[in-house]
Amino acid sequence: MKIIANIRLKHGVLDPQGKAVHHALSSLGFNEVESVRIGKQIVLQVNETDAKKAKERAKLMCEELLANTVIEDYEIELE
After folding, report:
1. CB 3.0–4.6 Å: which of 4, 13, 57, 61 could bond 77 by disulfide?
2. Cβ(8)–Cβ(72) below 8 Å
3. Low-confidence residues of the chain, pLDDT below 50?
4. Distance between CA atoms of 32 and 37, rounded to whole angstroms?
């Protein structure tokens, strides 16, 4: 089973990388872009057939390692 963890900074947390990308896009003439937030996507292939169990394990992985839950939110998708 494939687990996709989408991780992004919480609302209100400064995103200097997003600001740099926004500035670069503006410099290239993409003035319609109002703001940019940078996140990450982690794709895991796991040996699990039970979707509920896989989602629980993925949540634990995010809480313990993959996401810094003080400043980041995450969403888990299963495929």
Report:
1. 4
2. yes
3. none
4. 15
